[in-house]
Task: inverse folding
């Protein structure tokens, strides 16, 4: 992964509960997503963390399994607790992708990760890939770039906006661009 990605800047965007998006940037240190995110959490948010990410891709490019663990100590965690977790993570780190593919459910993975460390589940939530972008948001963005730029797009006859988070494409035809021009 590091060979393909190289080094650069890592931008981490968080959608806050009030709807705002907070983006922090740090220089990448390794090119491995998990290591760079841990570095970000430590330097930008001062939270020591361990992150395990794994994805198993089959020869036909279909994903056989993917899993991730983000582990952060709560106040009161002892040095011994942290060391016990670190030992477990060390044993799982290289095999996480295979394990994600083989495991039937998250509990099985969690038990493998925690080993003999006592633990219980506080909450379960479904995870899904989603984005807050929409045609109406993209329209607002176009309105905000100004009358002259919209006039340029109208002379091109069409425009297309691409969301940088999810890669969704939003085409705008001439009629839509004229309406946007009217709102500038
Ligand atoms: Zn999007």
Result:
């Amino acid at each position: 992964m590091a060979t393909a990605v190289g080094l650069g800047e890592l931008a981490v965007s968080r959608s806050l509960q009030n709807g705002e998006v907070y983006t922090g940037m740090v220089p990448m240190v390794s090119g491995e997503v998990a290591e760079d995110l841990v570095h970000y959490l430590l330097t930008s948010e001062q939270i020591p963390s361990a992150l395990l990410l794994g994805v198993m891709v089959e020869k036909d490019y279909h994903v056989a399994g993917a899993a991730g663990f983000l582990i952060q100590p709560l106040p009161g965690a002892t040095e011994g607790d942290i060391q016990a977790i670190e030992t477990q993570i060390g044993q799982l780190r290289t095999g996480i992708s295979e394990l994600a593919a083989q495991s039937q459910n998250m509990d099985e993975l969690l038990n493998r990760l925690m080993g003999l460390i006592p633990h219980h589940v506080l909450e379960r939530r479904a995870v899904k890939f989603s984005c807050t972008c929409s045609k109406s948001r993209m329209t607002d963005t176009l309105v905000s770039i100004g009358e002259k730029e919209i006039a340029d797009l109208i002379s091109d006859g069409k425009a297309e906006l691409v969301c940088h988070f999810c890669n969704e494409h939003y085409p705008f035809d001439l009629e839509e661009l004229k309406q946007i021009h009217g709102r500038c």
